[in-house]
Design a protein that fits this description.
Elements (H helix, E strand, L loop, with lengths): L1 E6 L3 E6 L7 H6 L4 E2 L7 E7 L4 H4 L11 E3 L3 E4 L2 E9 L2 E8 L5 E7 L7 H16 L4 E2 L1 E6 L2 E6 L6 H11 L3 E4 L3 E4 L2 E4 L4 E3 L6 H6 L2 H16 L8 E3 L1 H5 L6 E13 L5 E5 L1 H15 L1 H11 L9 H13 L3 E8 L7 H8 L3
Parallel strand pairs: 2-4, 4-9, 12-18, 18-20
Antiparallel strand pairs: 1-2, 1-3, 5-6, 6-7, 7-8, 8-9, 10-14, 11-12, 11-13, 14-15, 15-18, 16-17, 19-20
Length: about 350
């Protein structure tokens, strides 16, 4: 089976799979961008059940080709290919191979079932990240909300309050949600990257809770209990579609007016100052790198031996941000550690968006 996806015309890709239930998590992640087949895709993803056999996985013992290099017992690198033989995160295990790096990239992914919980974020999303930047429409690790077509980008580290604040603005202040985690920016315009909301205790709102089915209610409580019993080792989110929760309170596009970078600190009052993009550009880039740490590691390994635009992403990325965010008003916001919702009104007043 094959499904075609189109992300606002910026990135097009297909996912090939043979078991809809086994790959349910990945297919649901991109469900909002399913499309009839159109223009040639930028990349093709082939999802494979289980791991490869031992002989295939042990290619690091020698490829017999002088144009390939084996590094760290984990990677096989070629002039137009990259293979990760084995990687892991907690109990998740995966391997993947990228071929035709200078053309329509083919990504073959193998994983255990836990591994496929993470493959959208760890492999497919960084393919989208790279190609959107190549199309001069970089992704930013930021939530985005809009009111009267004026957008507010809220950038922060993972767990730094951007989702909680964005959802609160939607629920209480009449904003519409573009995205809660990543936003595509193009010449001052914002394009939503709406994937399922990852809900945990700290961002569970009344509207989200009321939208839960009985199954989701049980799932949410079971995952919270697992997190508690394992001392925080297992942190599994309950996933809900934003359009199911908020209905008409979502949108795909807006003209961005402000960019607020949230920085948690130990004070008790919100502090905020207008600044300029160069002053926070390094933080925005580092924030993106932190969310794509695995891609960063893979790129470093590959760039030691070869050069290809696909793995030179971090050289282009700050230049694209400068070009596409130049017209925005930029603010640095020191936000007291904890839930950001009590400071929403003060933030909006200072941004003149109330």
């Amino acid at each position: 089976m094959e499904q075609y996806y189109n992300l606002h015309g910026f990135v097009k890709f297909t996912i090939q799979y043979d078991d809809k239930w086994y790959f349910k998590n990945i297919l649901e992640h991109y469900d909002g961008y399913r499309s009839e087949e159109g223009a040639e895709p930028d990349f093709i993803v082939k999802l494979q059940t289980g791991f490869r056999d031992r002989k295939h996985r042990n290619r690091q013992r020698g490829t017999g080709d002088e144009n390939f290099f084996c590094t760290d017992g984990r990677f096989v690198l070629g002039p137009d290919s990259f293979e990760c033989i084995a990687d892991r995160y907690k109990i998740a295990r995966w391997s993947f191979r990228l071929t035709n790096l200078s053309g329509i990239i083919v990504a073959e992914i193998w994983a255990n079932q836990a591994g496929f919980l993470y493959m959208a974020g760890l492999v497919i999303d960084f393919l989208i990240e790279v190609f959107s930047c190549l199309k001069h429409a970089p992704m930013l690790h930021a939530a985005c909300v809009a009111k009267d077509n004026e957008g507010l980008l809220i950038a922060a580290r993972g767990g730094g309050g951007k989702t909680s604040l964005a959802l609160h603005l939607v629920e209480q202040y009449g904003f519409k949600l573009l995205s809660d985690n990543f936003t595509i920016v193009r010449q001052g315009d914002g394009w939503g990257y709406q994937t399922p909301l990852n809900v945990f205790g700290y961002n569970l709102s009344r509207e989200i809770k009321d939208s839960f089915t009985r199954t989701q209610q049980f799932e949410f409580l079971a995952k919270r209990m697992l997190h508690f019993l394992t001392g925080g080792y297992f942190k599994l989110f309950t996933r809900v579609r934003p359009e199911v929760v908020y209905g008409g309170k979502t949108t795909d596009h807006c003209r961005i007016k402000n960019l607020a970078l949230l920085i948690p600190y130990t004070g008790k009052e919100l502090e905020m100052e207008e600044t300029c993009l160069p002053d926070i550009l390094d933080r925005l880039v580092i924030n993106q790198m932190l969310d794509f740490q695995y891609y960063h590691d893979y790129a470093l390994e590959y760039n030691f031996f070869f050069a290809t635009p696909f793995f030179r992403h971090w050289e282009r990325y700050p230049l694209e941000l400068q070009e596409n965010l130049a017209a925005l008003k930029v603010y640095k916001v020191l936000l007291p550690i904890g839930k950001p919702r009590p400071y929403a009104e003060a933030l909006l007043r200072k941004l003149e968006m109330l």
